[in-house]
Specification:
Elements: H1 7-11, H2 15-18, H3 27-35, H4 40-49, H5 57-78, H6 85-92
Length: 94
């Protein structure tokens, strides 16, 4: 599992999201390691190039908003604002 997405669901994501580093660290650290050599502009261009030929403007915007939300979530984790897994399970009654 990487970034909360597994198997077939991950195949439709841009390469920048699909990469799975071999270092065993937190999800945020893995993501940051794979992103460290790419600028935001590069990541945007890659995400747009990964869209199918018949993609609409809405498809492109949806993809970019998705990536922006991932970045925002990882920034929260980096700032220590994440919720521990056990707490999430408790809140969901699992």
């Amino acid at each position: 599992m990487y970034g909360g997405v597994t198997g077939k669901a991950r195949e439709g994501l841009p390469l920048s999201i699909r990469r799975t580093p071999t270092i065993r660290t937190s999800a945020a650290t893995r993501y940051n390691l794979s992103m460290s050599s790419q600028t935001t502009r590069d990541r945007i261009l890659e995400a747009l190039q990964d869209l199918p030929p018949d993609a609409t403007f809405d498809d492109a915007i949806e993809r970019l908003v998705f990536l922006a939300k991932i970045d925002a979530g990882l920034a929260e984790l980096d700032a220590g604002e994440g919720i521990p897994h056990d707490e999430v399970k408790r809140r969901l009654g699992l």
